[in-house]
Structures are given as C-alpha cells and as structure tokens.
Design brief:
By secondary structure, the chain is of the alpha/beta class. It has one domain: TIM Barrel (Alpha-Beta Barrel). It has helices at 38-42, 48-64, 79-89, 125-139, 161-172, 186-194, 219-227, 253-266, 270-279, 294-301, 310-315, 323-331; strands spanning 20-24, 69-71, 98-103, 105-107, 119-121, 143-151, 176-181, 197-198, 201-202, 206-210, 231-235, 286-289. The radius of gyration is 19 Å and the shape is globular.
Length: 336
Amino acid sequence: MPQPTTSSLHPLIGQQPPSVLGLGLAALGRPGYINLGHGEDTGTGRSIEAMRERAFAVLDAARRAGIGYFDTARSYGRGEAFLGEWLRSREVPGDGVTIASKWGYTYTADWRIEAEQHEVKDHSLAVLQRQWQETHSKLGGYLDLYQIHSATLDSGVLNDRAVHAELARLKATGTRIGLTLSGPQQAVTLENALTLQVNGMRLFDAVQATWNLLERSAEVALDAAHRAGLTVIIKEALANGRLTARNQAATFQARRQRLETLAGRFNASVDAVALAAALARPWASVVLSGAATEAQLQSNLNAVAIAWDDEAEALIGALAEDPAAYWQTRAQMVWN
C-alpha cells in the first residue's frame, strides 16, 4: 500500500497520487463551529485579530510540516481572507500549494457564537456569480479548485443548467471544478454528479465527501469517482471531534474502547488513528485535518507515520454507525 504523505497535491488535481494530508479552515475562519470543544480552542481569543493570529500560526505549522493543500469556503467567516493574507504575507509561490474553496453558503453569524443562523444555503446562479467575485478578490492568483458547497439532490444544483454553464465557463479559464457532499444521500448525489456533462465534457474534476470510521456509506461511490478520474478529498475524518479523546459520551463507550485499543497498538492518539484509516483508503487523494490549534495539528500529523495494515482494517469493521443515525447526531451538534 502506498505510504501517505503531507506533500502538496499541486498540480495533480485530476490525477491520483498517494494520499496526502491537507488542512481545512472550517474551524479557523470563524469563532463558532460544531466541533466538540471548539470553544475551548478559541477560549476568550475570539476577536478577528486573535482568530487571524491563530489561523496564521496553524497555517505556518502546516507549511513547515510539508502540507500544501488548503481548503476553505465563502461561509467560513474570514477563512478565505485569512488564507489569502497568509499566502501573500509569506510569499508562498502559487505553484507550491493547492488552494480550494467553495460557494453556495453565505456566512450570516456576524462573528457571534450564539447566532440564530450561522449560514444560509443557496445554490442559485446569482449566488455563484457573486461569491466567485468575492472568492477571487481574496484568493485570486492562488485558487485551483472551486467547489459546490454541500451539493444535495434537493438543492436542485445538479439540475440547474445555468449554473452548470457558468461553472464550465470558469473551468475553461483554468479553475478546476468540484463538489462537496453532505448527508445520508452522499452516494446517490455523487452518482448523479458523475453523469453530468456540459458540451460533451465532464464538469467535475474533484469530489469532497464525509468519510470516517463512523460513516462509511459513500465509499463505493467514492471508489467509482476515483476510477473515473476524479480527485477524491475526505472531509470530517474525525467526525467533528467525535473520533478524538474529547468524545466521552456514554453512548460511545464501546466504540471508544475499540479505538483506544487500536491507538495503543500503534502507540498513537485516537485522532491520528482515525486520520490514518482515512489516508489508507485506496481511492482517496487528500484527507483534510480540521485542526484549530497547533497542538491538534501536530497530533493529526502523526497519522502519516502509521503503517495501516490488514489487522487494523479488521478492527475498524464494527465502528460504523447507521448513516441516518450518524447524520442525525451531527445535526444535533451545537455551535460553540
């Protein structure tokens, strides 16, 4: 099995290198997020200046570790702005990193933790055109991949020919196009997306989906996407903190014991083992760390040293949850 690495994917979107670890900015660009214990990570340092400083520190640590794939979104508060400022201030060469962002959600929390609504989903052509301009103003010159944020069948985006035409136009200018998935129907959504063509050419170059030891229902569809030539990116490999030592829920006890046994076998943390499992998927190109602190990133980085084997694969078989139950639990997680 090819050993995972932290090397940059650029310019390999559309190809299939060994799995690499990337960094997602969902927990770095805004003061509130649904990860377990996110409030502990930000503490009282939730001002824009404090969040920028923390984001830069994690980005610097990621770069030192060899990570070259960075993923953000319009709805990640100031995620795009922080990433763009960091790239320019550190004079990172554009051909040395791969930068991905997403459109389709608008951040509405106004930097508040207890906002009534943190983001609003809208996959219309008008939102695409507006958010593309906003993204380009923050990441212009660096952006490699632009993704539909959480495409679902009920959002209608896979049937909107005007949106497809606009995405095809952006693709023709050199930006790769992808989609991200969410919910228990990830596999069905992806199957529909794989057939989507504009002017006889496949629209999507990449797919980003939730896969982790608790939610594996999309893996057959993701393998099919890989074989079709799409870059496959794994998000939420730690299940929003549920696959870390922070998850002390009584209902998770049996699974926690299995994970701790596996972590003991590799002399690693639970989070590193969960990420190593994701990196071991033969169809995955990038696995995103969602680290909010340097300490979390360093723990996550230990995943690349774990030599995943058949014994480990056998031990994770009993960890998966029913997809509907998994997504219901995720929907009930509190922004903090």
